[in-house]
């Protein structure tokens, strides 16, 4: 699913920019190399998801864990490694969210309609069925509400004992995305945090 030879040069600038304030270039090169070594160690054991989006996201989760473990080797604390990993994943996720963000910001339609279009696009790919299971929830006129009942990424992080890393480096991206979209997100529950669902409530 993920070809390291192709992906490494694509991710390298993102990693360098996110880590430049903390590490020098030789250290960043070592971190990047170790990230892909760690990813390869997980690769054959990654869950084989039914949807293409699910498979892609699980492999990206493996890369995230690979980066986190590479940072720990550099002697940073677990908390700092989580924050640095989150800085990298946000840069990557923000690029992936370019089209949904454009839909959320476009002037046509109500704020709720724009946010719903953006979420619907994400739910078609990469957060698509059957790997991701989501249920729409009845809500107020300015709210887009749904529960995520299955998230293969959260499941994989938790299987590695890294639920806290998932929350910081993946789950919290949604709050940053909400700010990009000019809306407010409420989501007190997460599967990564041990709940049976992620309860998304986008306040448009």
Provide an overview of this structure.
This protein has 204 residues and is of the alpha+beta class. The protein is built from nine helices and four strands; from the N terminus they run H-H-H-H-H-H-E-E-H-H-H-E-E. It has a four-stranded antiparallel beta sheet. It has helices spanning 4-19, 25-43, 52-73, 78-96, 98-105, 111-124, 152-159, 163-171, 173-181, and strands at 133-136, 143-150, 184-186, 198-203. A hairpin with a 6-residue loop joins strand 1 (133-136) and strand 2 (143-150). The model has no long low-confidence stretch (mean pLDDT 95).
Short description:
The protein has 204 residues and is α+β, with helices and mostly antiparallel strands.
Q: H/E order of the elements? A: HHHHHHEEHHHEE
Radius of gyration using CA atoms only: 17 Å
Terminus-to-terminus distance: 36 Å
Quick one: overall form? globular
Number of helices: 9
Name the beta content range: 5-15%
SSE-based structural type: alpha+beta
- Helix amount: 55-70%
Q: Point out poorly predicted stretches.
A: none
Q: What is the mean predicted local confidence, pLDDT?
A: 95
Biggest sheet overview = 4 strands, antiparallel
Would you report the number of β strands? 4
Biggest sheet strand order reads: 1-2-4-3
Lay out the secondary structure:
Elements: H1 4-19, H2 25-43, H3 52-73, H4 78-96, H5 98-105, H6 111-124, E1 133-136, E2 143-150, H7 152-159, H8 163-171, H9 173-181, E3 184-186, E4 198-203
Antiparallel strand pairs: 1-2, 2-4, 3-4
